Design the sequence.
């Protein structure tokens, strides 16, 4: 069954890049527009927290909390995962000589945030170098353990890595860090809607994620989960009224994040429609969708690996619905040649997907990410195009 008609993506482009900004189904954008119309009909009634906004946000918070296995009192809203990472990092008490640990698979924006915060406090950023291709879970655990030191205060680690599409063994990583007295901030930008989540049992200190990626919500919508013991410490990146105006129906933690100034709440309010829609696509609901997308990603990875004559770079169990493959013979081509490949794929062959440098000089990667609107025929066409392009 084809689900493409539910999205308004350009039919002339094979969109294999859901992992970057997602894509929002028609029914969800319609729901968002209805909320925007309601907002403009009566702005004060709609936006004033003490009138109807708080109850609307709490309704969404309960639905999202049920989905990710969280207590609603621990779940705040942010514009995106990068904002969530910044909120935690900027709230973290750091002294000169302390360390923030990241990995070489981390999202560049979040690593930049760690560098910024470290420089302001005299702390340093330490990088755990995890190989890619990746043999298995032990390679992740070993790389993290090697870099944990007595001055490490926080480990910032992806749940699903953006450049390489690896589902990290996040639970044992958290356990290892806690054994060393290190807090863990999980960048779960790709988590909700791709992999099962239970934040109450995961035992991270902080977990932030996007709603616009695998939950297909409108852009500018995400979550920040904070363990109860850190609520008083974590502040939003924008300080507003709730800093000195307590609200009787919620904690300062929730009140500050719920209102950072005038904003459009329609992306958040339309999120339940997105969750309902995705849950309706398969008999097993959201889990069925995740399983189908995972199976599609494995099949796509196998097609590309066979075409490129490479071994699968990551074990099946460490993939979700985001797949990265190394491009062969990368060292024999110039940076400009590889950089032009993405442009050719877009302009000449009508594919949307990223091609980017690898961790080691002279290596290049190609990434595809699949949602319900994709099919294997698109990947097979990509494989034939790559065969021709790489032979030329």
Sequence:
């Amino acid at each position: 069954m084809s689900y493409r008609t539910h999205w308004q993506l350009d039919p002339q482009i094979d969109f294999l890049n859901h992992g970057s900004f997602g894509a929002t189904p028609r029914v969800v954008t319609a729901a968002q527009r209805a909320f925007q119309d309601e907002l403009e009909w009566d702005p004060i009634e709609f936006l004033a927290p003490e009138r109807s906004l708080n109850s609307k946000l709490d309704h969404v918070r309960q639905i999202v909390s049920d989905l990710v296995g969280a207590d609603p009192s621990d779940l705040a809203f942010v514009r995106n995962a990068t904002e969530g990472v910044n909120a935690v990092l900027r709230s973290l008490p750091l002294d000169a000589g302390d360390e923030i640990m990241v990995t070489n698979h981390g999202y560049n924006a979040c690593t930049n945030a760690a560098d910024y915060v470290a420089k302001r406090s005299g702390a340093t950023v330490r990088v755990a170098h995890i190989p890619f291709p990746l043999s298995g879970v032990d390679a992740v655990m070993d790389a993290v353990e090697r870099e944990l030191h007595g001055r490490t205060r926080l480990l910032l680690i992806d749940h699903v890595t953006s450049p390489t599409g690896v589902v990290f063994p996040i639970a044992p990583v958290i356990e290892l860090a806690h054994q060393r007295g290190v807090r863990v901030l999980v960048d779960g930008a790709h988590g909700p809607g791709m992999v099962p989540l239970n934040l109450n049992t995961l035992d991270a200190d902080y977990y932030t994620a996007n709603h616009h990626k695998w939950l297909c919500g409108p852009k500018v919508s995400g979550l920040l989960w904070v363990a109860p013991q850190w609520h008083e410490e974590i502040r939003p990146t924008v300080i507003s009224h709730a800093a000195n105006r307590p609200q009787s129906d919620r904690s300062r933690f929730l009140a500050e994040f719920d209102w950072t100034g005038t904003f459009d709440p329609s992306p958040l309010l339309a999120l339940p429609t997105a969750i309902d829609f995705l849950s309706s696509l398969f008999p097993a609901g959201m889990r069925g969708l995740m399983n189908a997308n995972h199976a599609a990603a494995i099949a796509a990875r196998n097609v590309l690996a066979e075409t490129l004559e490479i071994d699968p770079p990551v074990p099946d169990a460490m993939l979700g619905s985001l797949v990265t493959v190394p491009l062969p013979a990368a060292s024999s081509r110039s940076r400009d040649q590889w950089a032009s490949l993405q442009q050719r794929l877009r302009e000449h062959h009508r594919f949307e997907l990223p091609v980017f440098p690898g961790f080691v000089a002279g290596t290049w990667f190609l990434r595809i990410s699949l949602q319900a609107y994709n099919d294997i025929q698109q990947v097979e066409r990509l494989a034939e195009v790559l065969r021709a392009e790489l032979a030329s």
Observations:
- The chain has 15 helices and twelve strands.
- The longest helix spans residues 285-308.
- The radius of gyration is 21 Å.
- The first strand starts at residue 14 and ends at 15.
